[in-house]
Amino acid sequence: MMGKTNDNLRVWTLAAWTAAALASAPAHGQAYPSKPIRMIAPSSAGGPVDLIARAIAQGLSEAVGQQVVVENRVGAAGLIGTELVAKAPPDGYTILLGFSGPLAIVPNLVAATPYDPLRDLVPVSEVAAAAYVLLVHPSVPAKSVKELMALARGQPGKMNFGSGGNGTGIHMASELLKQIAGVRIVHVPYKGAAPAMTALMAGEVDMMFNALPPTMPYLKSDKLRPLATGGAQRSALVPYLPTVRENGYDFEMSGWYGVLAPRATPPAIVTRLNGELLRALGAAETKERLTRLAVDAVGSTPDAFGKRMREELARWAQVIAAAGLKGVQP
């Protein structure tokens, strides 16, 4: 995760820039929105993506003066909901709360992905980031990432890690750490992060990465042991946990979320959405909602978010190729 500034809100634009951009929008863009907006959350209700979408949608509703309705479209590791937006009319009334899985990871796994995230979607703004935490079952005799990797190195292929399924961010986090540390650990996929966490606490798997929000209630329990977070620096929410990088590994990963629109959405609408999202993310109420979810508010220009997506697609292409995962179904 990048450095935190201004109470964890990173807005990569100035108010003057936003005002100037809005002023330059054509008349039809200024009239937008004139009716409710659908925000597609490509996940089940109650999960992290859904909860973040609802926090962002509420803030955006307050900013634009129109209702922003979250609609859950579940299936295929986020592909179904993402495809829906990619093929929706480009009028700004159907937008996506996207995340790393269907935007950067799964397109590198599945050749038949029904959309191109760079060609068929327009980035509007990054909106949130969530730290990843490396967890082990208490029976694992490791108190640090270094000790855990030493254990794995001493018994190649005998230790295992859980995940919420092939191609999920928490799966890729473990694959990345395996490659950096040069160890062999067996992947055990589950149908979601919640079942994987249950398996970890039951001792069915030795370790796993998970996003910080769903792990917060367990971090100081005796059901699991947190070893480190995955960001570039310690999370303000769990400052007592070191980063994986502090343990000597060139590792950085966190969950990221952003708003996107269909291809060919008019630039005036993208500009309006970006400006209103930045306004919503700067509001104390939105920051408070996200903080309650153990998530950092993040704002960006469309170009900065597009650059992030291109970098992530290239990064995971390399990790997936090195792990021999191409063609693995999510």
Considering the chains and any ligands shown, give keywords for the structure.
alpha/beta; two-stranded parallel sheet; 9-stranded mixed beta sheet; 12 helices; D-Maltodextrin-Binding Protein, domain 2; globular; disordered N terminus; 330 residues
Structure description:
The chain has 330 residues and is of the alpha/beta class. Helices cover 40% and strands 20% of the residues. The protein is built from 12 helices and 11 strands. It has helices spanning 15-24, 27-30, 48-64, 79-86, 100-109, 145-154, 169-181, 193-201, 212-215, 267-282, 284-292, 302-323, and strands at residues 10-11, 37-41, 68-72, 94-99, 121-136, 160-163, 186-189, 207-211, 225-229, 254-262, 296-299. The strands form 2 sheets. Strands 1, 2, 3, 4, 5, 8, 9, 10 and 11 form a 9-stranded mixed β-sheet that branches. Strands 6-7 form a two-stranded parallel ribbon. Strand 6, helix 7 and strand 7 form a beta-alpha-beta unit.
